[in-house]
Amino acid sequence: MSNVSITLYNNDESRGLIAAILKDNPASTTMRMPGVVKIDCPNKLTILRETVENELGRPWDVQQLHMSLVSLSGMVDEDDDYFTIAWNH
Amino acid sequence: MSVTAPKKLSLKERYRILTRGLDWTPTYQEPAKIFPHAEFEGIKIRDWDGFVDPFRLTMDSYWKYQAEKERKLYAVLDSFQQNNGQTAITDGRYVNVLKIFLTAITPGEYQAHRGFAMLGRQVPNVGLRIAAQMQSLDELRHAQTQIHSCSHYNKYFDGLHSFSYQHDRVWYLSVVKSFFDDARTSGPFEFLIAIGFSFEYVLTNLLFVPFMSGAAYNGDLSTVTFGFSAQSDESRHMTLGLEAIKFILEQHEDNAAIVQKWIDKWFWRGYRILAILAMMMDYMLPKRIMPWKDAWDIYFNEAGGALFGDLARYGIKMPNTAEVANKEAFRLSTETMLTFYQMGHASGFHSWLPSEDELKWLAEAYGPEWERLYLPRFKYFRELEAKGEHYYNPSLPQLCQVCQIPMFFTEPDDPTKICFRDTVYNGDRYHFCSDGCQHIFEGEPEKYVQAWLPVHQVMQGNCGGATIDEIRKYWRVEDGEDNYDYVGSPDETMWKSWQADRLKVGS
Ligand SMILES: [Fe+2]
Ligand SMILES: [Fe+2]
Q: Which fold does the domain B48-504 belong to in CATH?
């Protein structure tokens, strides 16, 4: 099993996103660097639109992620309600 | 029955219409004539329809998000300029990383733009073509925003005035230029593996995450903003690279051997470029995020390890030179820095010796072996400086025929001995810095014998003359301004006067 990883801007927009990720992926760990936050999670990490909307208190389009995303590691699957990164081994 | 608005199409549906609905099967032209480069590399594709871009970005959302990224970025650049952001960086030394970035990396972005434009025309799958066209535009945006944000520093600091001219001529810049020239002159599949996979997925994180975070740490708001803005496109590029490699491997079992050869080649080519980044992170950032070796562990061993774990089911293995790269991790930045320090008279940026505190930080990061090998050299150079005899190496170095880096790397298992390999081809002897580069040469000698090697060009009289003065003129390296040590440079004088002004305000 390996970690998947996502790195997000350390800004206001991303705060809700990071909170949602930590809620939906309790096994994840965060590493803070100046300007960015790197979140690692064993095997799979899911971002759910609903959780992000609850955290932000407003509608959120999954593709809005492009505005906060700095880097990622893992295979991507994206649809209207979720964004997942996973390894298949 | 009530009238309802037509249901909004789902993301997957919109993407399907864009990539399948808009393409057509040609009837009066042979596919092989429309895509003449699709087959010569030997990659076998059974079903082009199998390729799907997981980001499923349609043109309208692409423009929407890219425009938003640009607006955000330019707001920061504007404010940085208006408010003299250059005076708030940690130290004047810092700007030298921007000089390297602008002359070495930015023209590489432009080369990537050209390469992906080629790909956006040449691959017989519309999803892949659209993703490549988007990436081509992204790379152009990266080049433009980098030039734009560095142009502000160019108003004040030396060494930023002739980046594109220098990129095609100066000795250390040919390292990056030859890398992208090599990639762009390969076929579309090799280019995709070279840049989309090996470079973007395995290596650019090191450049754009810890290094850009370092820019933030050093108060350079303009660079960190373009860096992360660019890297937010890289996430899409990395995903394209990974999906493309999976697609190629799933299409035919014969593809694995070809792909493995490209991975081995392009990992090593890319890794060699990163030597200069290692130096920038360990020796040139006044405030440091993490040692090069830690970044290498996170982004290559950890992230790369996971990636190759996933590709194992196709029979793909870690690059064959990864072990050598790991052996070099503790000394890569130092071997590179010590070389540039000696070549300060012939470089377009300043070098300098690390302070006592910085040496302590390095010793802690790299351990007793590092201390044993390198502390005495720093001590020796410092003694020479104290006597007013800063050492500059008057000779022209021998360059590796493949990576074009001077021969300063050491044997994988003996850091006291220069690593040196050679091969005779058609009666001529060619020299290499490593088994990795030698191996690449032997795979395609007819390509690498044509390399434009800066030192050979000087020797052949193609670079303005035989003296260092003439060669510097040819390179447009302004003697006494752009080059030599930071200490005593016009940059330093200017920085010190800014600092003095700042202190006056408080008193
Ligand atoms: Fe780029
Ligand atoms: Fe080499």
A: Ribonucleotide Reductase, subunit A (1.10.620)
Q: What is the ipTM for the molecules in this complex?
A: 0.90
| Cβ-based neighbours of B282, under 8 Å, separated by 6 or more | B288, B291, B292, B333, B334, B337, B362, B365
Predicted confidence (pLDDT) per residue in B223-275, tens digit: 998 888 888 898 889 888 999 999 999 999 999 999 999 999 999 999 999 99
Closest CA relative to residue B207, chosen from B286, B300, B72 = B300
Beta partners for residue A7, in sequence order: A38, A71
* pLDDT digits 0-9 by tens, B450-468: 999 999 999 999 999 989 9
Token pair for A39 = 């979140």
- In B, what residues contact A, Cβ < 8 A? 10-12, 54-57, 61, 65, 68-69, 72, 205, 208-210, 212-214, 216-217, 224, 228, 231-232, 234-236, 238-239, 242-243, 246, 289, 302-303, 305-307, 309-310, 312-313
Placement of tokens 């659209």 in the chain: B130
Geometric angle at alpha carbon B18, from B43 and A5, rounded to 5°: 65
DSSP string covering B433-469, please?
SSHHHHHHHHHSHHHHTT---HHHHHHTT-SS-SSHH
Helix axes B221-251, B59-82, angle to 10 degrees: 160
The residue with greater pLDDT, B245 or B208, is B245
Return the domain boundaries, chain B.
48-504
Chain-chain contact of B235 with A36 (C-beta, under 8 angstroms): no
Tell me which residue range forms the domain holding A57: 3-86
What CATH number is attached to the domain comprising A32?
3.90.56.10
Between A and B, how many residue pairs show a Cβ–Cβ distance under 8 A?
98
Identity of residue B278: A
